[in-house]
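[step 3/7] inverse_fold.run input=structure_tokens len=510
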């Protein structure tokens, strides 16, 4: 029955004989663009937090293997140039929900509160007849709106024994957060009644700082080789003040809690025993060798990666469990499965952890999409897409018209293997959270396939230009290099055009 459409199935039961069919009863606008008798696809949106593409093996990771996440690339499409418009947790979530830039959806940094009264993709999907749910990390301060069911972590949430909020009520959970979120998602999927298509946002907390792995993965990466990035000891020569004055280095900013010289709170006695068994030998070895200088950075980097990758092991396992369920339930063919993260992350590149900068590691989001009916297995896309496009893409698949004030573009043609001739050649970025933790200065910029122009502003007025073809690691700002004078001129005009197009009047004008 998997390959049979719903209409064919119903017809075989005699249900549709001579009737106008179910489409006549759908709300206005629904069904447009759908072939007659096509059942609208379910949408499973899986998003982790701070999962850098370079920690996913189908993206060529040198430090990790993710066999289950890789299944989505093998059976679907992998995007190489998916970018976030503002590389920070809550702002990226707000962009994904609204299809609007931060300056219009009202959530510019993690201190802002999301206005749940505004139009969102989930609300429109629900109006279009989808059953909607969010399970896991929410992080937008106000309660979720537009969902038939929600069960979320308060704030950042915790890894062990996390309290959660189910439809407004506080619930206690015992266990490990990634496994709990997965269990809840499967429970919701299995408990669905009726035949509405679903839109499920399955949002993991992992692998967000402080990177606390599940008990079974506490020592999982202890014996694995974890190569160091070439720029681990970057001294930021060749770049401006912003790179010099940030506060997100492994050397100085990463603390004892991050590297687990201090254990987390809230463990049960059993969890604590496993934790101590895993970490006491590491702490002892550290005290005995007492590394200093670059050796200390190397030790911290390794500790950081062991825990970060340990968290991802559970996320990968979760993806496998959910994909297996879709297969077993006969839902795999008619469900669009998306895997992404709210932004990228530094895995020691430039000596950093965290995100925020418009540099490649934090700008890029992993994006994998599987939908056997439209997407060629094992395909790779190089076009520029953004988290801004997600809401409109899902509305497109739901057969609902996207409102004119959404600012993205449906990526459905790309998924079908056709890049429209007028597809965007550049993307616009704007980061706001400063002064704040990690001290990354405010900046906006434009990225094309080859270049990136950035303007740092507020208590600074500096421009940076990178030629990604000749300098993929972004080590040399060529803004003042006469050889790039024309490029600077063109990109400045493009940046100005994009600020006007997206109606962004925030930040220092160009
Ligand atoms: Ca994040």
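[step 3/7] decode complete -> sequence:
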């Amino acid at each position: 029955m998997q390959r049979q459409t719903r209409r064919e199935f119903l017809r075989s039961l005699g249900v549709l004989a001579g009737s106008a069919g179910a489409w006549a009863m759908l709300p206005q606008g629904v069904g447009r663009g759908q072939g007659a008798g096509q059942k609208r696809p379910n949408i499973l949106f899986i998003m982790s937090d701070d999962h850098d593409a370079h920690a996913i093996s189908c993206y060529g990771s040198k430090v990790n293997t993710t066999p289950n996440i890789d299944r989505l690339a093998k059976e679907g499409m992998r995007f190489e140039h998916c970018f976030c418009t503002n590389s920070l947790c809550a702002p990226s979530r707000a962009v994904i929900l609204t299809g609007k830039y931060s300056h219009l959806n009202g959530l510019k940094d993690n201190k802002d509160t999301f206005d749940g009264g505004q139009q969102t993709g989930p609300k429109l999907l629900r109006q279009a007849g989808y059953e909607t749910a969010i399970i896991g990390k929410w992080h937008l301060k106000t309660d979720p709106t537009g969902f038939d069911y929600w069960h979320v972590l308060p704030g950042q949430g915790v890894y062990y024994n996390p309290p959660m909020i189910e439809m407004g009520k506080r619930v206690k959970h015992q266990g490990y957060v990634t496994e709990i979120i997965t269990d809840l998602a499967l429970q919701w999927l299995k408990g669905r009644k009726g035949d509405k298509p679903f839109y499920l946002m399955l949002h993991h907390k992992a692998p967000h700082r402080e990177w606390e792995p599940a008990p079974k993965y506490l020592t999982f990466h202890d014996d694995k080789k974890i190569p160091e990035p070439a720029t681990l000891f970057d001294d930021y020569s060749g770049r401006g003040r912003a790179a010099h004055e940030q506060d997100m280095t492994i050397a100085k900013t990463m603390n004892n809690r991050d590297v687990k010289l201090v254990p987390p709170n809230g463990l049960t006695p059993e969890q604590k025993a496993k934790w101590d068994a895993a970490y006491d030998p590491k702490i002892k070895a550290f005290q005995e060798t007492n590394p200093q200088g670059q050796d200390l950075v190397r030790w911290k980097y390794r500790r950081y990666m062991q825990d970060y990758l340990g968290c991802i092991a559970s996320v990968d396992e979760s993806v496998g469990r959910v994909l297996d369920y879709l297969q077993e339930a006969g839902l795999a063919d008619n469900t669009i499965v998306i895997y992404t993260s709210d932004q990228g992350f530094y895995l020691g590149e430039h000596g950093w952890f965290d995100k925020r900068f418009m540099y490649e590691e934090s700008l890029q989001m992993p994006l994998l999409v599987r939908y056997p009916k439209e997407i060629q297995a094992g395909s790779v896309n190089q076009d520029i897409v953004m988290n801004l496009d997600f809401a409109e893409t899902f509305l497109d698949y739901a057969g609902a018209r996207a409102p004119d004030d959404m600012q993205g573009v449906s990526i459905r043609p790309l998924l079908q293997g056709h890049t429209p001739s007028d597809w965007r050649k550049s993307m616009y970025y704007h980061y706001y959270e400063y002064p704040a933790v990690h001290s990354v200065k405010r900046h906006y910029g434009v990225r094309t396939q080859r270049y990136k122009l950035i303007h740092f502003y507020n208590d600074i007025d500096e421009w940076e230009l990178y030629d990604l073809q000749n300098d993929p690691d972004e080590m040399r700002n060529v803004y003042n290099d006469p050889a790039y004078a024309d490029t600077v001129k063109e990109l400045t005009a493009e940046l100005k055009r994009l600020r006007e197009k997206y109606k962004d009047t925030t930040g220092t004008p160009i």
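[step 4/7] annotate
The pocket of calcium ion is lined by residues 49-50, 89, 342-343 (CB under 6 Å).
The chain is about 30% helix and 15% strand.
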